[in-house]
Design brief:
Blueprint: E1 6-12, E2 16-23, E3 28-35, H1 45-62, E4 70-75, H2 83-91, E5 97-100, H3 111-126
Parallel strand pairs: 1-4, 4-5
Antiparallel strand pairs: 1-2, 2-3
């Protein structure tokens, strides 16, 4: 297990959730995938249970490599109304600080909006 400060990036969708663990300078340490998940699963008990199980699977893959200090997640279908619930559900895996960044959390589903949300997430993680 590495003791170097790490960040975990998540890109979730209906088919799979890809993850990448990297150092602060961007050096890739490890990558993989777990089951897919979307924000639509937040509205049902079974869906939330699936998200929690997926996050526990993610933790079992990531934590033997190192403990991320920060997590940045892009979640398909997530908007600002869902962020607190998603953070609560995902946070139970205790992977690190969590910030959600995707275009659905902004004013529109465009590339520029996605970039704006990614910048917002980075600033939140930095405490700006």
């Amino acid at each position: 297990m590495t003791t170097t400060p790490l960040g975990l990036g998540l890109d979730s969708g209906g088919t799979k959730t890809r993850w990448a663990l990297s150092q602060a300078d961007g050096t890739l340490v490890a990558e993989g995938y777990v089951a897919g998940l979307t924000a639509l699963q937040l509205v049902t008990t079974d869906g939330r249970a699936h998200i929690q199980a997926t996050m526990l699977d993610l933790a079992s893959q990531v934590l033997p490599i190192g403990r991320p200090q920060r997590v940045c997640a892009g979640v398909t279908g997530l908007d600002s109304r869902d962020e607190k619930l998603c953070t609560h559900v995902v946070g139970r895996a205790r992977l690190g600080r969590i910030t959600i960044a995707n275009s659905d959390a902004g004013a529109g589903a465009t590339f520029d909006t996605a970039l704006d949300q990614a910048q917002r997430a980075i600033e939140e993680l930095r405490g700006v």
